[in-house]
Prior knowledge:
The chain has 249 residues and is of the alpha/beta class. The protein has helices at 45-55, 81-91, 96-112, 127-135, 189-202, 227-245; strands spanning 3-13, 16-25, 31-37, 60-64, 116-125, 141-147, 175-181, 206-211. It has an eight-stranded mixed β-sheet, sandwiched between helices. α3 packs across α4.
Amino acid sequence: MIIHADAFEDLATPNGVMRTHLFRPAIEGRYPGVLLFSEIYQVTAPIRRLAAFIAGHGFCVAVPEVYHEYEEPGVVLRYDQPGTDRGNELKFTKPVAAFDADAAAVLDYLAEHPACSGGLATAGVCLGGHLAYRAALDPRVTAAACFYPTDIHSATLGAGKQDDSLARMGELAADTLFVWGRQDPHVPFAGRQAIRERLEEVGARYEWHEVNAAHAFLRDEGPRFDPALFVQATGWMIDLFRRTLRTIP
């Protein structure tokens, strides 16, 4: 499906204007909405390609700039040590409540967008995987795809490094996909085990995959990209969204 990928909106949030990039099918119609969260580097070229990939399967995809309070609109951090250091610094500077307010603002935007059918899902990678999970605590969200989400097991997201993501797992009503790289040092076996045990404890509806891959194996830039696993893992996501959001066959 051909898409439009050059639009953005500057959304109002309690913490300032947040630039949000929109990717949607070019054919007029109404499509389920997907809130896609980026890594710590904001809306990079690989994230834009991932958003376009999802939109091309029949979804209206919104990608916010997660550090809008701290960086100018349009800023993209580089995949190098200074960029990584800055992204990690801001991950532990921004309050969790601000991340949550951003998610609510984008979900509101999608729910009211004329190209959106009203069905809502979330997705994300790395930091974005955690944010996609937290956004899925919103009862409007039907499905969530969380790719190697960091900091859930350690409860260290945001200012003060004391998030409540595991504690709130009982609120999760969305069908949720978790995909992990077994060679990912950011979420070791014990961390993955803690998350899965909590999912079982609260009776969550979830799908769980562990693959032989490093962190960021979906990023189609750099040495860790695994194209075959990209096809497989994103296929799990599209299947989940089609099944739960009743989109095109």
